[in-house]
Amino acid sequence: MPNVELLQRRFERERAARKAAEALLEQKSLEAYRANQKISEMAKHTQAIVETAAEGIISYDADGIIRLFNRSAASIFGLESAIGTSIHHLFECSDNLCDALFLAGEFGTEGNSTNSRELVGLRSNGRTFFAEVSTSRVDQNQSPVFTALIRDLSKRKELEVRLSQAQKMESVGQLAAGIAHEINTPIQFVGDNIKFLQGAFEDIAGLIELYDQLAEAVTSSSPTRTCLDQIKEQAEIADLPFLREEFPSAIEQCLEGIERVATIVRAMKEFSLPATESKSAVDINRAIENTLTIAASQVRDIATIETELDPSLKPVVCLAGQMNQCFLNLLTNAIEAIEQHCESGAGRIKITTRSNEDSVEIRVEDNGPGIPAEITSRIFDPFFTTKPVGKGTGQGLSFVYGVVVDKHDGSIHAHSLPAGGTTFVVSLPIHHQAASKEQTHANSAH
């Protein structure tokens, strides 16, 4: 009997333990179900965010094979899907450069989103476009997973081109009166010389007619005394010695005036090139000379221009139209600084170019009041200006910084002396950085 009671108690304990285990299992199962539901909802939510994001989102493995390609990415590249293909196929770069950009950590370290970088993307129809790309990396099960965020810059680039062209046309408009004066001066003395030549030709034509009459009189044995007297009188009217002296000078002045007008028109044509995102090799010295030509009337009564342009300067691969605008903005900035500080005609602006190993340097120096130390760090900020309201937009130096630094991987800085005077130093790589890197990686592959 005691054994039966013992078994009974053991059975009750085991049954209670089983019920507790079943209750715990049911609780854990419910918790697991709820957790699974939550994970599923979060996955759906995350997927919805990824699919509806305005930026293209691409995830790829260590071999560059795409594992995730969201709806915006499909729209940007014009593809239904790119999963299973190489990310190299989406951009205009060599395999070596793409590996360096997307796989070798050039964009950043694990877990850190990188600064934006512009690359050239390839659409399914073969057209190219500028894309802003940033990547990040995370290690999962000791295998790296990469994510690239893609933003189509086509519309922004179009707006930048329009803004650049508008700023250029604004500059041309501001210079128009001075340019008209520059053209009017040579045109005026060309016109005066042509009138002089016209009157002189009429006198000479009369003299030639009398010579013809004399020749006829001599041939017919008619009296020639009257003809000779008339010729002498007409020769005195024409003043042949004076004409012999002045004709070459008048013609030379006409040619100089025409060449001056042609130079101004040519400079205006090159300066006013339509804005474009296509880079080309540019003669920086010539671009500076064109800028000085069209701004001559603006400078003449304010400052003396001195140039030291390195004749061995190599062409720079850049945006020609925007670089012209940069030089004009720097020149205008120097002129305005001198106007506030120097007496009329006492200003001095010196422009220097020189070659470095893989870059060119442009220095624009003026003898204006200088830049106060407390605002030096802000002069390239958009809309920052020390001018009175309505006198300046604060976009001139900001534009220069954007073109030199952001679009050409160059540098610009300014320094002033305590006694006055400011020097802006611009450094431009001879070849655009992306092109140089691609060539470097290509060479290393051989």
From TrEMBL:
<feature type="domain" description="PAS">
    <location>
        <begin position="42"/>
        <end position="80"/>
    </location>
</feature>
<dbReference type="InterPro" id="IPR004358">
    <property type="entry name" value="Sig_transdc_His_kin-like_C"/>
</dbReference>
<dbReference type="InterPro" id="IPR035965">
    <property type="entry name" value="PAS-like_dom_sf"/>
</dbReference>
<keyword id="KW-0067">ATP-binding</keyword>
<keyword id="KW-0418">Kinase</keyword>
<dbReference type="GO" id="GO:0006355">
    <property type="term" value="P:regulation of DNA-templated transcription"/>
</dbReference>
<dbReference type="InterPro" id="IPR000700">
    <property type="entry name" value="PAS-assoc_C"/>
</dbReference>
<dbReference type="InterPro" id="IPR013767">
    <property type="entry name" value="PAS_fold"/>
</dbReference>
<dbReference type="GO" id="GO:0000155">
    <property type="term" value="F:phosphorelay sensor kinase activity"/>
</dbReference>
<keyword id="KW-0808">Transferase</keyword>
<dbReference type="Pfam" id="PF00989">
    <property type="entry name" value="PAS"/>
</dbReference>
<dbReference type="InterPro" id="IPR003661">
    <property type="entry name" value="HisK_dim/P_dom"/>
</dbReference>
<feature type="domain" description="Histidine kinase">
    <location>
        <begin position="178"/>
        <end position="432"/>
    </location>
</feature>
<dbReference type="InterPro" id="IPR036097">
    <property type="entry name" value="HisK_dim/P_sf"/>
</dbReference>
<dbReference type="InterPro" id="IPR036890">
    <property type="entry name" value="HATPase_C_sf"/>
</dbReference>
<keyword id="KW-0547">Nucleotide-binding</keyword>
<dbReference type="GO" id="GO:0005524">
    <property type="term" value="F:ATP binding"/>
</dbReference>
<dbReference type="InterPro" id="IPR003594">
    <property type="entry name" value="HATPase_dom"/>
</dbReference>
<keyword id="KW-0902">Two-component regulatory system</keyword>
<keyword id="KW-0597">Phosphoprotein</keyword>
<feature type="domain" description="PAC">
    <location>
        <begin position="115"/>
        <end position="165"/>
    </location>
</feature>
<dbReference type="InterPro" id="IPR000014">
    <property type="entry name" value="PAS"/>
</dbReference>
<protein>
    <recommendedName>
        <fullName>histidine kinase</fullName>
        <ecNumber>2.7.13.3</ecNumber>
    </recommendedName>
</protein>
<dbReference type="InterPro" id="IPR005467">
    <property type="entry name" value="His_kinase_dom"/>
</dbReference>
<dbReference type="Pfam" id="PF02518">
    <property type="entry name" value="HATPase_c"/>
</dbReference>
